[in-house]
Amino acid sequence: MKVTPIPCRTDNYAYLVVCQETNQAGVVDPTDAPPVIAEVEKSGVDLTAILNTHHHHDHIGGNNELLERWPGLVVYGHQSDKGRIDGQTRFMDTGDTFTLGALEVRTLHNPGHTTGGISYVIEDAVFTGDTMFAAGCGRLFEGTPEMMYTSLCKVIGALPEQTKVYFGHEYTEANLRFAAHAEPGNGHIAERLARVREMRAAGKFTTPSTLAEEWRTNPFMRVDSPGIQETVKKNDPGNDLSPANVLAVVRAMKDKF
Ligand code: ZN
Ligand code: FE
Q1: For the CA of 116, the nearest ligand
Q2: In angstroms, how far is CA 62 from the centroid of its own chain?
Q3: Which CATH architecture has domain 2-256?
Q4: 99-143 pLDDT, tens per residue?
Q5: Domain boundaries in the chain?
Q6: 179-215, pLDDT tens digit by residue?
Q7: Catalytic residue from among 29, 54, 55, 78
Q8: Which pLDDT does position 63 carry in this prediction?
């Protein structure tokens, strides 16, 4: 498998995923068609599928134009996003699999940011859309804190630690600034923030992350850590410190940060 990030608009990432055995490819979350078409032409691959992580326009905006160009594209999304994803032809749920060339793709339902959020697991990588970001998570537009906790820590979090995390937006530096505020004593966050600042100053993408790195630095996955819990107690003295209630307070703090 070869994965190429395609930066779109100000901070979105589409990804071209290529099966090197068959030269077949899929595109994850085509924000807009032109940069995707350019990458497909440059690499000379055979685009056969669109993999949408959720229905938001900055993740499906290129679907229709790509379908005009390649009418046979298979379009994957969660079953509950029926009617919300342009051109959707396949309706997936947790545990469903399909093939992209010779690659096996496994889907995980990840409600929280939206009710139809889905991640795609391919070999040692997971494409998380706006569910898991580097050091962050999406806003809770349609789901509950409990759903987001389960999606991040129990469903995506059940994958091996070395799994590469390909996320939907380049928010890493701002997320780490918030993470340092939420858990000031965490040296991994300070170290990662310094590294990410250098990468961004040099114009580099911070994608992919790894699950191991997220467990160390993502405040929304560190709901059990004493540092995060101390911050939550200060902001919400009556909090019972259940994972969902901790995540709810951290998410509310981030929304205002
Ligand atoms: Zn979104
Ligand atoms: Fe988005």
Answers
A1: 1
A2: 18
A3: 4-Layer Sandwich (3.60)
A4: 999 999 999 999 999 999 999 999 999 999 999 999 999 999 999
A5: 2-256
A6: 999 999 999 999 999 999 999 999 999 999 999 999 9
A7: 54
A8: 98
What local confidence, expressed as pLDDT, does residue 175 receive? 98
Establish whether 130 is a catalytic residue.
yes
Span from the CA of 58 to the centroid of ligand 2 (angstroms): 5
57 is catalytic: no
- Is 93 catalytic? The answer is no
Q: What does the pLDDT read at residue 65?
A: 98
168 alpha carbon – ligand 1 mean position (Å): 8
Ligand 2 centre distance from Cα of residue 169 (Å): 7
pTM tops 0.85, yes or no:
yes
| Helix/strand/coil (H/E/C) assignment for every residue in the chain | CEEEEEEECCCEEEEEEECCCCCEEEEECCCCHHHHHHHHHHHCCEEEEEECCCCCHHHHCCHHHHHHHCCCCEEEEEHHHCCCCCCCCEEECCCCEEEECCEEEEEEECCCCCCCCEEEEECCEEEEECCEECCEECCCCCCCHHHHHHHHHHHHHHCCCCCEEEECECCHHHHHHHHHHHCCCCHHHHHHHHHHHHHHHCCCCCCCEEHHHHHHHCCCCCCCCHHHHHHHHHHCCCCCCCHHHHHHHHHHHHHHC
Residue 81 is a catalytic residue: no
